[in-house]
Amino acid sequence: METLLPLLAPLSIGSALGSFFNTIFTPLYWAVSGILVFFHHIWSPLLGTGSGWNWALSIICLTVVIRIILIPLFVRQIHSSRKMQLLQPKIRELQKKYGHDRERLGQETMKLYREENANPMASCLPLLLQSPIFIALYRVLIGASQINPKTGLPTAHGYWLERDPGLLTSLNRSEVFGARLADKFWPVHSLGNVQLVAAVMIVIMTATMFYTQLQLTRKNMPKEAMEGPMAQQQKMMLYLFPLIFVFMGVNIPIGVLFYWVTSQLWTMGQQYYVIRNNPLPGTDAYTAWEERQRRKGLDPREVAAQKDARANGRPKTAATSGSVVGRQSNGSAAANGAADGAVNGNGQSGPVRQAPVRQQPVRQQPRRQPRSQRKN
Q1: Higher per-residue confidence, 342 vs 239
Q2: Cα angle 330, 336, 341; round to 5
Q3: Is the dihedral of CA 356, 360, 362, 365 positive or negative?
């Protein structure tokens, strides 16, 4: 029995969870460390191997690579957000009709989402997919800032840093403006370069996030969507998200702040491009977009139909056929409008309404013989 006690000893839940997440994140550690080392080798001839700006630019390049990979998901997020905004009037009608029955309201709402092919969670996909990468980068940099008492070296996460202890030591000692990339704002032992650099980056991060959310609600949100409980939630998130990141930022290494600031700047620029070129109908941004299209000599309705056709996978001819028919019908109406003041079939003055002409097959009558020949 004594020999079985070690086997029956309870495992530590913390160690079990730690090994589980370490197994899950190992591929991400491998990828993050590989991209960092790759760009570090690219910038080394220009900035030097141990330069802090070398590692900072490597983190920025890592961010750009990640955001480029996430562009298809961002496009899907934009289309999902458009559908959700356009569905708000129908959702409010369902709330008025089934407000007393929560279960029926949920069923009808899900049915509407299925019919319109809308997914409320699609707008969260880019942020959710960035979270594991953010955690992996955090672990790589926080490991580089911690010295292992057994080895006397920083803790390595990722194959490409494990295989080269010199790179790991370089990352641990690299500085930008006199602040190590592995240091954090908190805890504050004494105010110095670390707190100054971290505070500036936290302010930039929260300011860009606040402006991005404000730009979305002020310029690319229909007036109908600015009313109701969902609009109140969006207003709360406008101020809540930046506040959350202020408290998070003081516990994030400066190297990770480089990643987050670059990501927020990318998001702000990407959203500005989308709002300018693909705004929601019924918004101030859409009105400005229509005016720009007219100044270019284009029909905004036709351009919007082409964009919708491309988004839904239809050919361009199908998208523009409606506008072509519209122009033809307008031309016919103008031609028929010249007949105003004429007398119609009822003896009343007004536009003449012509019945559609049906083509009848022509029947040839046999030629009749002259009367003199018929008598004979």
Answers
A1: 239
A2: 135
A3: negative
Residues 6+ apart with CB under 8 A from 263: 63, 66, 67, 130
With contact defined as beta carbons under 8 Å apart, do 260 and 252 qualify? yes
Measuring CA to CA, which residue among 342, 80, 59, 95 is closest to residue 227? 95
Residue entry with tokens 């969902």: 230
Whether the model clears a pTM of 0.85, i.e. scores above it, the answer is no
354: confidence class by pLDDT, cuts 50, 70, 90: very low
The one-letter amino acid at 102: R
Residue 147 C-alpha from the chain's centroid: 39
- Is residue 168 within 8 Å of residue 50, measured between CB atoms? no
E strands along the chain, which residues?
175-176, 179-180
Distances (CA, A) of 150 to 61, 155, 208, 233, 353: 33, 10, 42, 50, 97
Q: What pLDDT score does 204 carry?
A: 95
